[in-house]
Amino acid sequence: xxxxxxxxxxxxxxxxxxxxxxxxxxxxxxxxxxxxxxxxxxxxxxxxxxxxxxxxxxxxxxxxxxxxxxxxxxxxxx
Length: 78
Hints:
The protein is of the alpha+beta class. The mean pLDDT is 94. It has one domain (2-74). It starts with a strand and ends with a strand. It has 2 helices and 4 strands. Strands 1, 2, 3 and 4 form a 4-stranded antiparallel β-sheet that branches. α1 crosses α2 (33-51). 42% of the residues lie in helices and 26% in strands.
């Protein structure tokens, strides 16, 4: 059996991207604080743009669950 599940959470994606980008930026040593803030904003934008492939409005995610194959696949937006 296959079925589709739509999930909505307005903050989770943005919070996860911001946390990941901040962690990545801690690996860069020679960056001033003002430059770090600009890098943070730009990288969040870049990753958010990529995620638009799967998330509508940054908060809706659709997955297809197949109980026979025991899989759960993220459905790309149309």
